[in-house]
Automatic annotation (TrEMBL):
Designated name of the protein: dITP/XTP pyrophosphatase
Species this chain originates from: Pseudomonas mangrovi
EC main group: hydrolase
Family annotation (HAMAP family): Non_canon_purine_NTPase (MF_01405)
Record-stated family: Belongs to the HAM1 NTPase family.
Name of the gene encoding the protein in the UniProt record: rdgB
Assembly with partners or alone: Homodimer.
Source organism phylogeny: Bacteria, Pseudomonadati, Pseudomonadota, Gammaproteobacteria, Pseudomonadales
Residues involved in substrate binding: S11, H12, N13, A14, G15, K16, S72, F155, G156, Y157, D158, K178, H183, R184
Length: 200
């Protein structure tokens, strides 16, 4: 079993850092890659797992610490899994609002019954840059794509991601609910078990 009490998160996203620290609890101190480098590796993998590994190995290399990388995004059934690994830059780097607008446009003629989607999170944890035995954990969160944004919490595609069993969008959940239900929470639960951490 891998024992880690400090790691670097391969992300400059403050929201993600806060979410993951809350999910890991006090047992593991999470530091940002921003403390060590502003250079981002080229994410040229074809899957969430490949890109998470690229980022984790880069973060371990520049920090000298065990590194955790998260590659996550939205996979929409009617779009063959798009935007997928391109979720963050779906609209060419125009940010969340532009990404959401492009997604709504792509699904404009798609009926409710065919608007199924899932948020995907792949986590990769490496002890060092050349670690031959990384820990890989995945989490899926099933939902549907709305016709218009709802809610103001969260980030990314949260306002368009409808959760039928909760009768609300992901952006209408509070942080505590989202940290319990989300794709990232599901992947983190697997990671915590692999690390032997008690439930937070």
């Amino acid at each position: 079993m891998m024992h880690v009490n400090e790691l670097v998160l391969a992300s400059h996203n403050a929201g993600k850092l806060k979410e993951l620290q809350a999910m890991l609890g006090d047992a593991v101190k999470v530091r940002s890659i921003g403390e060590f480098s502003s250079v981002e590796p080229e994410e040229n993998g074809l899957s969430f797992i490949e890109n998470a590994l690229i980022k984790a190995r880069h973060a371990a290399r520049v920090s000298g610490l065990p590194a955790l990388a998260d590659d996550s995004g939205l996979a929409v059934d009617a779009l063959g899994g798009a935007p997928g690994i391109h979720s963050a830059r779906y609209a060419g780097g125009g940010g969340d609002a532009a990404n959401n607008a492009k997604l709504l446009e792509a699904l404009r003629a798609v009926p409710d019954a065919e608007r199924g989607a899932q948020f995907v999170c792949a986590l990769a944890l490496v002890r060092h840059a050349e670690d031959p035995l990384p820990i890989i954990c995945e989490g899926l969160w099933q939902g549907q794509i709305l016709h218009a944004p709802r809610g103001s919490n969260g980030f990314g595609y949260d306002p368009l991601f409808w959760l039928p069993e909760h009768d609300c969008s992901s952006a209408e959940l509070d942080a505590e609910q989202k940290n319990r239900l989300s794709h990232r929470a599901r992947a983190m639960a697997v990671l915590r078990a692999r690390l032997g951490l008690a439930d937070v």
